[in-house]
């Protein structure tokens, strides 16, 4: 398993990318998932070379494609992201499947989102990249049924899934069952947890992005409502995952969660090996 931290965890910190890289390296991470706004502010360049010297890579740029914007605006946005991804040698771009939940989206709106995602997937594929839609509330990927339908509607091999386990659970689906149905489409994972379903509001964008937002309810990976001990065995040994931590105490929580994740993954591998033997 390759595990990355997310630069979005440090959105309210005054840190350089090299300071984050040193922390990631010293903590034992394999890579850094780069938030789109951070990538844009760092600008183009051969960043992968110096990052490789830290033993790190960028598995994904996490951004928000303007699917409702004019085609020319979307194309310009993607062109910029392709240049940035090339500089970091990042193979994936994450986005959301629109800005409205599946139950609140009309057939016409759904067709528009699908068409724009098809356009984006084709554009990125021409540049050697894969486009990932994230399982997320308030989008057309808010339930497994809607996401599978969307994948069929887009019908492009470069469109994959960023499986956010917490948000799958938030949408009312069992993560294990959802994973089984989506397995062939999943290309990356976001892992985070919450104290209880009543605390899910802490992940609302208005709260997450606010420097003074509420963090109570965000928990360490193995101490929340989602059972990661039960979920991790379904992940392939070479799975690419990111610890998406939005709370405080990043410099203690992230290494601790990484250590427990490595240990749990090792136990799962041992169990699978015994079963195979």
UniProtKB/TrEMBL annotation:
| Domain of life from the UniProt record | Bacteria
What keywords tag this UniProt record? Isomerase
**Is Ligase a UniProt keyword of this protein?**
no
**What Pfam family is a match, any one?**
AP_endonuc_2
- Please list the GO terms describing molecular function: isomerase activity
What residues does the Xylose isomerase-like TIM barrel domain cover?
Answer: 22-247
Listed transmembrane segments? none
Entry protein name:
Sugar phosphate isomerase/epimerase family protein
Q: Which organism is it from?
A: Aureimonas populi
